[in-house]
Specification:
single chain, 143 residues, alpha+beta, Alpha-D-Glucose-1,6-Bisphosphate, Chain A, domain 4, 26% helix, globular
Length: 143
Amino acid sequence: MADILHDFPINASAQRVFEAVATPQGLEAWWTLECSGTPHVGNEYVLNFGPEYIWRAVVTKCVPNEAFELQLTHADKDWAGSRVGFTFENKSDNTWMRFYHLGWPDANAHYRQSSYCWAMYLRLMKRNIEAGEFVPYAKRLEV
């Protein structure tokens, strides 16, 4: 199996970063078109990326201000069963983010494209948290 990993600093508190990755409002600011769910282990999230891409995930890890993880239960075949997660810790005046997307069936073309897309989306998340920048959903991979 192949995994996607990205580590980087964010100039914000761990609480602010947690809100950006674990709440529907936070996820809508940088990743999804629409989202619903509550950050508690066992709860379901609906991740809407457009009419043909309404995916579902279950919260498998939720430690406020430390970690959040979703396991995709209904998604594209390469994503189904994979886990998307975030861990973070305060480091003096910023938060160190560790992102992972685990459980890809292999390092196929979709894996490589998704690795690139994750880097782009995580950059948008960082800019949204640090500077309040909001990019409309349709433009997010063009920025």
